[in-house]
Amino acid sequence: MTALKRVAILMGGFSAEREVSLVSGAAVLKAVEQLGHQPIAVDVTRNLREILDHLDPKPDVVLNLLHGRWGEDGRFQAILDLLEIPYAYSGVLASSLAMNKVMAKKVFRAEGIPTPESLVVSQEKAFTTQVMDFSYVLKPINEGSSVGVSILHNEQDLKSLDASWTYGHEVLVERFIPGREIHVAIMGNQALGAIEIRPKQGFYTYEAKYTEGKAEHYMPAPLPGACYQEALDVSLKAHQALGCKGISRVDLRYDDTNGTPGKFYVLEVNTQPGMTPLSLVPEIAAYKELSFNDLVSWMIENAQCDA
Predict the structure, then answer these.
(1) Would you give the DSSP letter of residue 99?
(2) Active site includes 154?
(3) Known catalytic residue: 133?
(4) Fold of 6-89
(5) Catalytic one among 64, 274, 297, 306?
(6) Does the domain spanning 118-175 belong to CATH 3.30.1490.20?
(7) Which tens digit of pLDDT belongs to each residue from 26-79?
(8) Catalytic annotation present for 274
(9) Is 122 a residue of the active site?
(10) Do domains 6-89 and 118-175 have the same CATH topology?
């Protein structure tokens, strides 16, 4: 019989992904209640004293459902380490590396993990000058959920860019990889499975990720057997290369435009993937006969402070 615990659920926050975090937090809160644990809901603000008050007395475990900056990037993990409160997901270094796409790519390249060609340029240059042969992608260096992402296929796309960029003075420019959108769920040291996402319009935007009916999900991803296993293997390698723990989601592009087998490219590792009704990790886990409550129970039991 699993011992019942006081479980604090961090949600909300003040990143561009606040609303998604609230949905994830509400779903996990319900699961914690159903599992019989005592939940403590914490809507995170910039008031550190208020947050610390919620964590006093110390909960047994923290489930950090914050998404994006100031939650997924190692800063809250450092606070929890200082307080010696076990928490789900990755620790300080892995969270920080994974959130910073430039640093993550350096690790991937050093470990021989394929990732798209890229460079970093100023915001002004990215929005006024063709900085790479078309097609390419503009991304914030440290945001998630496709926030702020633009794909440029031609000069007209460049001229049509929305100049109201609010994601920092530098922009990650990445070679656009044609082909298919594949995502892999990692749980501990095991790749659970791979799913393919086919947006009904454009690419897999923030809206497509969190609006029902905007994208088609294929689980398991319809890949040839050897290619499916390769997706799992390269994703687990990326998870481990960054030093991730617990559950993560690895985002891949699979370029099979010139036939099979194609080539996988790792775009990023999400150290605190969404836990909403449309999120991919719960969907992949369900295919492996792991319920949403099973996932939450596993996170609670495997929570730890960073070593």
Answers:
(1) H
(2) no
(3) no
(4) Rossmann fold (3.40.50)
(5) 274
(6) yes
(7) 999 999 999 999 999 999 999 999 999 999 999 999 999 999 888 999 999 999
(8) yes
(9) no
(10) no
Two tokens, residue 93 = 């270094």
Q: Does domain 98-114+178-295 sit in CATH 3.30.470.20? A: yes
Residue type, 84: E
Can you give the pLDDT at residue 202?
65
For residue 230, the one-letter residue type is: E
Which listed residue (89, 136, 204, 210) is catalytic? Answer: 210
Q: Which residues touch 125 (CB under 8 Å, ≥6 apart)?
A: 131
| The CA-based dihedral angle spanning residues 65, 98, 267, 262, taken in that order and rounded to the nearest 10 degrees | -110
Sheet holding 136-139, edge to edge: 118-122, 170-175, 136-139, 150-152
- Per the residue annotation, which of 69, 180, 249, 253 is the catalytic one? 249
Sorted by where each begins, the domain ranges of the chain are 6-89, 98-114+178-295, 118-175
- Residues 116, 253: contact at Cβ < 8 Å? yes
Q: Which two tokens stand for residue 90?
A: 């990755």
Instruction: Let me know if 216 is a catalytic residue.
Output: no
Catalytic residue flag (residue 96): no
- Predicted TM-score (pTM) of this structure: 0.92
Q: Which of 145, 150, 248, 279 is catalytic?
A: 145
Write the pLDDT tens digit of every residue in 203-222. 655 555 556 677 899 999 99
* 100 classed as catalytic: no
| Catalytically annotated residue among 21, 235, 248, 270 | 270
Catalytic residue among 251, 253, 262, 297: 251
Residue of 268, 279, 297, 306 marked active site? 268
